[in-house]
Task: inverse folding
């Protein structure tokens, strides 16, 4: 379970974000001011830090600057009511990895967190084979079976499947699939991804394996 640190002084926003992030499968620790946020982020290991800019005692800009000075390389997503380009540039130059102005949609926050988590090096390498219940995927041999019976899965569908399995448990956007699976042959419409996912679900015989995250993309839920 990913470990997140939320540094935010707005009590109602803390309650909302903590509940939604926990429901999405994250473990969330909370600090309400910049000084405590800095100390907690320095003393404990987190997979991602959600950092407000306008904090008591120490601003988010100062926190991220000090984190990087102390060689804490945890990904930082800055949250702020400021939408000015200069503020965003300042945060990124100080060492933040991403910047999300308030107000924001929860699905976008989750997608940005998942993108930052994928950048971290702790993910285990993807094996050439993967089993889930009656399903067996052999990505090197380019085949998939269910109860030993071969499935009529195309090369493109296998590539989609491998990317989803490799990032299992995290949200993969349609745009990410187009960029990393279709690559130079990417069609102009993300609707193509939806059609291919629907076909893949039907062939696997278990539509619950690939979950739709409405407005964002997809998540492979197998382990």
Result:
């Amino acid at each position: 379970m990913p470990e997140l640190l939320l540094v935010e002084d707005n009590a109602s926003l803390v309650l909302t974000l903590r509940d939604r992030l926990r429901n999405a499968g994250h473990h969330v620790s909370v600090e309400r001011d910049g000084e405590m946020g800095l100390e907690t982020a320095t003393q404990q290991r987190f997979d991602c830090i959600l950092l407000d800019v306008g904090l008591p005692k120490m601003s988010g800009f100062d926190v991220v600057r000090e984190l990087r000075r102390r060689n804490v390389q945890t990904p930082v997503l800055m949250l702020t009511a400021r939408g000015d380009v200069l503020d965003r540039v300042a945060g990124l130059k100080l060492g933040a990895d991403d910047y999300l102005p308030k107000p924001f949609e929860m699905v976008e926050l989750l997608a940005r967190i998942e993108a930052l988590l994928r950048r971290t090096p702790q993910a285990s390498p993807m094996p050439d084979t993967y089993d889930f219940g009656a399903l067996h995927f052999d990505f090197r041999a380019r085949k998939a079976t269910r109860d030993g019976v071969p499935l009529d899965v195309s090369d493109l569908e296998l590539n989609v499947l491998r990317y989803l399995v490799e990032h299992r448990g995290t949200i993969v956007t349609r745009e990410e699939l187009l960029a990393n699976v279709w690559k130079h042959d990417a069609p102009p419409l993300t609707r193509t991804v939806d059609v291919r996912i629907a076909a893949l679900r039907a062939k696997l015989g278990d539509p619950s394996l690939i979950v739709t995250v409405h407005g964002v993309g997809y998540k492979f839920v197998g382990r």
Q: What stands out?
A: Residues 38 and 66 are 8 Å apart (CA to CA). Residues 106-119 form the longest helix (14 residues). The helical segments are 11-23, 34-43, 60-69, 85-94, 106-119, 155-166, 174-182, 191-204.
